[in-house]
Predict the 3D structure of the following.
Amino acid sequence: MAARTKARKRALDLLFEAEARGVNVGDLLHERLATPVTQAPLNPYTATLVEGVVGHWREINELLDTYSQGWPVARMPAVDRAILRLGAYEVLYSTEVPEKVAIAEAVGLASELSTDESPKFVNGLLARLVQVKPTLA
């Protein structure tokens, strides 16, 4: 597994864990950076992703709500919410990864970790965000 793919998975784990525990994801990230719970410290790209999602939290959630067509963020499975937040950050705000790669990585996470319908949903919603990206300011 490529380093960035692992970093995305770890970022997803942090987003999911924070929601499940009802804690602030930024605080959880800083806790894990200070005191790792695994032998390997967090990849710097994991921190970049989580910090990026946190920094654009409101905008990401509003865009997901707007373009998910009848599936408010609150109704989505928790793992899908986390995957979509990561994917949305990468396609809308990151300049480090091509949009198609970010979408493919998000779809891969959904295929591995969520329902049978999730990969198609993640792909469609992130592709829609890429389409409207030029109109966002």
